[in-house]
Design goal:
Pathway: Carbohydrate degradation; glycolysis; pyruvate from D-glyceraldehyde 3-phosphate: step 1/5. The protein has eleven helices and 16 strands. The protein is α/β, with parallel strands linked by helices. Helix 6 crosses helix 8. The chain binds NADPH dihydro-nicotinamide-adenine-dinucleotide phosphate (NDP) and 1,3-bisphosphoglyceric acid. NADPH dihydro-nicotinamide-adenine-dinucleotide phosphate binds next to helix 1 and strand 2.
Length: 337
Amino acid sequence: MKLVAINGYGTIGKRVAIAVSSQDDMKLVGVSKTKPDFEARMAVEKGHDLYITIPEREKLFDQAGIEIAGTADEMIAESDIVVDCTPGNVGPENLDKYKKAGVKAIYQGGEDHDLTGLSFNSFSNYDDSYGADYSRVVSCNTTGLTRSLKPIDDLCGVKKIRAVMVRRGGDPSQVNKGPINAIVPNPPTIPSHHGPDLKTVMYGVDITTVALLVPTTLMHQHNLMVELKNDVALDDVIDVLENRSRVLLLNAKEGLGSTAEFMEYAKELGRSRNDLFEIPIWKESLNIVDGELFYMQAVHQESDVVPENVDAIRAMLELESDNEKSIEKTNKAMGIL
Ligand SMILES: NC(=O)C1=CN([C@@H]2O[C@H](COP(=O)(O)OP(=O)(O)OC[C@H]3O[C@@H](n4cnc5c(N)ncnc54)[C@H](OP(=O)(O)O)[C@@H]3O)[C@@H](O)[C@H]2O)C=CC1
Ligand SMILES: O=C(OP(=O)(O)O)[C@H](O)COP(=O)(O)O
């Protein structure tokens, strides 16, 4: 059984930990924290072995009555692969550590593509990370773009993409993030980083993105304008998206006209942490005008990249060479539609 460590037990790390635990071909070694807070306590209560990033803080964990299994370095040494879920720009400090320990590592979208020279999406370039030592699961927004654009590209070819990304100001628990009462071009320059990031997993695609931050925490929202290479009927686009896993066509007219209602739908699915791993697309928004496809979708930023991390582990550890088989296995274990 291959051994997986999660370095950084925050929004992404805690979800990847549960997802890894639910697979039958990999085993979770443990998770790491720097602080002895409630998240650390609950990690132990959930049955995870907890390792500390800063050994000098052992006493603090001891005083807080939180049992630790060792240091993060010890956790890394025990593993075949580390999923680095530390905050953006912390990851590079860890790369030497992983190299010295001889373990593979998966980074997240907060790190630059150049750190690994290889980025990952389950649908578009799984094979390129097969057996790789280091790769990076692209960000929540880029994962969302890839999920819907790849099947469209496969169906009829994509000539040019324009996308307006409405980004959530912060995650629900991030009390220090904003804006509270503003719309912020973020970045104020065009293109935003999302277009170039998409090209790291959908090679050669012509895309320009602009992005704004808004005062909401639930989801990101995307508005896409896609010039198509070949004529296609709207019904065929709908059909291909309906048959693609990790994408959901949902109807505004059924009371799902907003990100808040998408999150209510996720609650009804009854999953842990109310996660919506799939990318919901407003079905009514799909339209083709003069050979250009338009649609609107949303991204549950806290969870959409989680199944991709599981597939990346499987590819890099050579547990499965066929991306569709890995996707199916991950979906089944996580109850993904
Ligand atoms: N949140 C999101 O919407 C998304 C985030 N991402 C990307 O995923 C990555 C992780 O983000 P997210 O989960 O939000 O981050 P969080 O801040 O929620 O969690 C980060 C975790 O890393 C730990 N940590 C902090 N500093 C260090 C360090 N120096 N060494 C080791 N561990 C450390 C923290 O521990 P402690 O709390 O104990 O300090 C915490 O457990 C980033 O690259 C981000 O861009 C990708 C998609 C969506
Ligand atoms: O990777 C993300 O977004 P991004 O694709 O807009 O960079 C996550 O939602 C984290 O974004 P943040 O950098 O606003 O915390």
